[in-house]
């Protein structure tokens, strides 16, 4: 677990006179265990912000800290983060267990430890009875939970969600939203969740970052953000 700090973060795409600055000095102090939702119109920089925290995109200036560690120059794998994407891809030929274990095997985590972590994630996500199945034998909701299981077993300090619900039908979206809430209650992992859906923001966020044109317009509770005239 860890806090997350953005300190005057700037992002420019391109170089020289043609450079396009898309994030204009964003600062935010996010507490350990906090669930933060980032909202704002298309093109305002939500995804860029998330990808910079993940290390998938360099920052042009400023600092990003996870806990007390400056991560600006660390590879994604060194940042203790896990990302949940909207297009989760499970390995079709692997069992649920192996899908969740795969990244840990690559990272050479001992197999006894892998079993402990996968079993714990499976218990929280109610996948314990499905560990031997293949993805095609699962419902959409179960697959979504396996994808989250893969992120949990990494024991990240920070969870990054990039519109993970946007491709789901309404029923599955509501189900998965509840699942994410439950996960956060049980594990309390500091989370950054990008969406353009107000219901998701209202129900999931402890605080909301409102982005607009690469600037942080507001950083406040859902009540404060949505009671504005
Ligand atoms: P959002 O996620 O809020 O829709 P993005 O972070 O994707 O916004 O984009 C913010 C701005 O940065 C947009 O103007 C977009 O066109 C620009 N942008 C995003 N990715 C790139 C890139 N790889 N190269 C150049 N410009 C980009
Ligand atoms: P592969 O890319 O072959 O599927 P891995 O699943 O181990 O192998 O992922 C490769 C790299 O991506 C590793 O460095 C790992 O740390 C990182 N990675 C894997 N899954 C995630 C995730 N959910 N969030 C963040 N990083 C991840």
From TrEMBL:
Protein name, as recorded: Sn-glycerol-3-phosphate import ATP-binding protein UgpC
Alphabetized UniProt keyword annotations: ATP-binding, Cell inner membrane, Cell membrane, Membrane, Nucleotide-binding, Sugar transport, Translocase, Transport
Residue range from the parent sequence: 1 to 229 of 335
Occurrences of domain ABC transporter (ranges): 4-229
Coiled coil: none
An annotated Gene Ontology molecular function: ATP binding
């Amino acid at each position: 677990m860890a806090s997350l700090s953005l300190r005057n973060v700037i992002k420019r795409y391109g170089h020289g006179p043609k450079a396009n600055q898309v994030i204009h000095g964003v600062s935010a102090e996010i507490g350990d265990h906090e669930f933060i939702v980032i909202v704002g119109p298309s093109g305002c920089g939500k995804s860029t912000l998330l990808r910079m925290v993940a290390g998938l995109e360099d920052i042009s200036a400023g600092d990003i800290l996870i806990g007390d560690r400056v991560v600006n120059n660390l590879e994604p794998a060194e940042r203790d983060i896990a990302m949940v994407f909207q297009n989760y891809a499970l390995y079709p030929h692997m069992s649920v267990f192996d899908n969740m274990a795969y990244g840990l095997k690559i990272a050479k985590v001992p197999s006894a430890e892998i079993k402990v972590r996968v079993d714990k994630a499976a218990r929280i996500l109610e996948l314990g009875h499905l560990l031997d199945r293949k993805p095609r034998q699962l419902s959409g909701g179960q697959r979504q939970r396996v994808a989250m299981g893969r992120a949990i077993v990494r024991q990240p300090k920070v969870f990054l969600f990039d519109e993970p619900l946007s491709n789901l039908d309404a029923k599955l979206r509501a189900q998965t939203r509840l699942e994410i809430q439950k996960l956060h209650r049980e594990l309390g992992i500091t989370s950054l969740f990008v969406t353009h859906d107000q219901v998701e923001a209202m129900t999931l966020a402890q605080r909301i970052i409102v982005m607009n044109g690469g600037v942080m317009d507001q950083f406040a509770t859902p009540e404060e953000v949505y009671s504005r005239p």
